[in-house]
Amino acid sequence: MAKWNSQSVQILAKHILGQKVTKIKSLGIYNCRTVNRREASNLSQHAYGLAIDIAGFVLADGTHINLRENYDGTDKKRHFLKAIEKQACQYFSTNISPLDNERHNNHFHFDLKFKDNKQQYCNS
């Protein structure tokens, strides 16, 4: 997370939005549950503390960027979120976005499950 924040999030924020991110809005990391909360499913990467759900960001000037509101927009906020999504594959093994399914309509899901084969699960 620290490497992703310093080498991706902050650089993209400065380049695209002209200021730094002061807060990453998370919906959670650890949650002992199965994948998609299905009873017969494997444990989610959240159950191991290896996943995070990112709902948005807060900028130095107090501006909020939320996936639900800004992911499909046409401004710099959308551009920033799309850049974050694209670069996440350099730091996380699995990258699920609002484009992937309705369960992720308000957040990015990043995890480390398939570390040795990361590109297979990342959006292009």
How would you summarize this macromolecular structure in one to three sentences?
By secondary structure, the chain is of the alpha+beta class. Helix content is 27%, strand content 22%.
In the predicted model, the low-confidence regions spanning at least 5 consecutive residues are 115-124
Domain count: the total is 1
Q: Would you tell me the structural class of the helices and strands? A: alpha+beta
Residue share in helix:
25-40%
Please count the beta strands (DSSP E, at least 2 residues each). 5
Report the sheet-strand fraction: 15-25%
CATH architecture: 2-Layer Sandwich
If you consult CATH, what is the topology?
Muramoyl-pentapeptide Carboxypeptidase, domain 2
* The top level CATH class name: Alpha Beta
Using only C-alpha atoms, the radius of gyration works out to 14 Å
